[in-house]
Design a protein that fits this description.
The structure holds two protein chains of two kinds. By secondary structure, chain A is mainly beta. Chain A contains two helices and eleven strands. Chain A has an eight-stranded antiparallel beta barrel with strand order 1-2-3-4-6-9-10-11. Chain B is of the alpha/beta class. Chain B has twelve helices and ten strands. Chain B is globular, with a radius of gyration of 22 Å. Classes of the chains: A mainly beta, B alpha/beta.
Chain lengths: 234, 306
């Protein structure tokens, strides 16, 4: 049902009669999260790279200026293939597909500058990229730790999970809300976009120590800033 | 013109910011590899226990690691015929702690409680691992693999027996399968069948990235109930000696970050000599000759003595 609604929404947005821009966009962004546990707080940052195909409408559809579909990779250190060239990257660690809708408001007379909000949904497999642990060994050999992790809330299709050798329940679905300032260059052939946004991810937080064990899950608003460069391709 | 300069300026600023972010990332490879060396190492090694020359050679090499502060626990096999006892006794003399693994075939042949009674009185040990990977069909590990359901019913009975008869004993569950994603599924089966209701150490074997990634899914799902439980990675390692150091530098930190184990045991001190006999995991080679060849990780551990 959800899939059908999603497809219907995409089809409705297709600008069959509008004179629209089609672009390929490249985005780089930086995200930093501070998650407070009871005994420790865990701070971590990560970077993401996205490639997306964007469709901008010449005339706004409902309230939207366009939409995009893309693929996102979150940079993840630690996969160097253990000294071997092969297996440097694993697609199932920090790879997402994205769907974004946006609205732009022109803010300059020649329409070269615009500003506007966008909402994106990301679906993918975080793997271990967003797991973080702060730990300290105690004299009795036990470990005190604060462990934070994304609450994986979606499934991977069974066939894909089997092929890729991942657990079916390992996917994460979350929204990102952002605002961007766009500069159109070369008569709209190139777009430069500066963006700031918030990722809304449910994190699990475990504090385990001799003082006691505490677990909670918390919706976390994680700021992100970045830049998008787009080239008109159709 | 001004707007183009402004746009250019913002672009350059963003890229400069990117550079700063990357450089300051605490887990970037440049800083991680240089600073960590083998600091992620945890002091536990699996030791195979054949009689004869390998005994004296391995114990001599273990003393070096112990003096360097790189080993305080060893995992040893036990047998109903008491073979390998000399390793346990020597380890005790050296002040090393031992995790003793009881083979599934011994539990099945003598009866679980009876096998524990016999082995407990034979081998001095600080912790008892109840069976090796139960789903491993390698005949060297298990003559017959068993299901999590069967295992947990037996473990539950044994746990009650040991707690009543030997209240000070610490038990460890069978390590889950270390490659692929089946180990995570098995771990979840253990949890569903009551492992988290027992006061035991939860054991995992982890030999690959898919295994670690799938363990993360299960461990995070049960994070609340796992809080306060002890987790041991009783086997990890690389079969390529050239990658041993990289494994400690790169995989150990990920393992600790994801699984937060109390201990990680390297498999193994020695994995056989030469040709088909060497499984590549060993920190040592040529042990049967009496003059062990110390592989790069072993040497690196000694060179960074605490």
């Amino acid at each position: 049902m959800t899939r059908a609604i999603f497809l219907a929404a995409v089809l409705c947005l297709l600008p069959r009669y509008a004179y629209s821009d089609g672009r390929i966009n490249f985005r780089i962004d930086f995200t930093h999260a501070n998650i407070d546990g009871v005994y420790n707080h865990v701070g971590f940052g990560w970077q993401g790279l996205e490639v997306e195909i964007e469709k901008s409408f010449t005339t706004h559809k409902v309230i939207l200026s366009g939409f995009s579909l893309g693929v996102r990779r979150e940079l993840f250190y630690g996969f160097t293939g253990f000294g071997e060239a092969k297996g440097v990257q694993r697609w199932d660690e920090g790879t997402y597909v994205t769907f974004r809708v946006f609205r732009r408001f022109d803010v300059s007379p020649d329409k070269s500058w615009s500003i506007g909000p966008s909402v994106a949904i990301l679906y993918g497999i975080p793997g271990t990229t967003l797991d973080r642990t702060i730990a300290a060994s105690q004299v009795d050999g036990r470990l005190d730790y604060t462990h934070v992790f994304p609450m994986r809330n979606a499934d991977v299709p069974t066939e894909l999970a089997r092929t890729a050798d991942v657990a079916t329940s390992s996917a994460l679905l979350y929204p990102e809300v952002s605002v961007s300032i766009t500069k159109r260059l070369a008569k709209g052939g190139i777009n430069l976009e500066w963006l700031g946004g918030v990722r809304i991810i449910q994190f699990g937080i475990v504090d385990s120590s001799s003082q006691g064990d505490v677990f909670e899950n918390r919706r976390t608003f994680i700021p992100s800033i970045g830049m998008r460069v787009g080239f008109r391709i159709f | 013109m001004i707007t183009k300069r402004l746009a250019l300026g913002l672009g350059v600023s963003t890229l400069l910011y990117a550079g700063c972010q990357r450089a300051s990332n605490p887990v970037s490879p440049q800083s991680a590899v240089v600073e960590q060396m083998t600091t992620a190492w945890t002091p536990c090694v699996v030791v195979h226990s054949p009689a004869g020359t390998p005994f004296s050679t391995q114990m001599d090499e273990l003393r070096k690691l112990q003096r360097a502060g790189k080993v305080s626990w060893i995992r040893l096999n036990t047998h109903l015929d008491a073979s390998g006892l000399e390793y346990h006794l020597e380890a005790r003399r050296m002040g090393l702690k031992t995790l003793s693994i009881i083979a599934l075939k011994d539990l099945e042949s003598a009866g679980w409680e009876s096998a524990f009674d016999r082995l407990y009185t034979t081998y001095p040990s600080d912790m008892w691992e109840i069976a090796d990977e139960i789903s491993n069909s390698d005949p060297n590990v298990n003559p017959v693999a068993v299901t999590p359901d069967y295992y947990m019913s037996k473990l539950s009975n044994l746990y009650a027996y040991v707690k009543s008869r030997y209240p000070g004993v610490t038990l460890t569950s069978a390590p889950t399968f270390g490659t692929g994603t089946s180990g995570a599924t098995e771990l979840e089966e253990f949890f569903k069948r009551g492992l988290l209701d027992m006061d035991v150490v939860v054991a995992l074997n982890v030999y690959s990235n898919p295994a670690l990634s799938s363990y993360a899914t299960v461990i995070d799902r049960y994070a609340g109930r796992l809080a306060g439980k002890r987790i041991w990675v009783t086997e990890t390692g690389s079969s390529n000696p050239a990658n041993h150091i990289a494994w400690v530098q790169e995989f150990y930190p990920r393992l600790i970050n994801t699984v937060h184990p109390d201990m990680v045991c390297w498999y193994a001190l020695w994995g056989g000599d030469g040709g088909t006999g060497d499984n590549g995991f060993g920190l040592l080679d040529a042990v049967e000759s009496g003059h062990a060849v110390e592989r790069p990780l072993f040497t690196a551990l000694l060179s960074q003595a605490r």
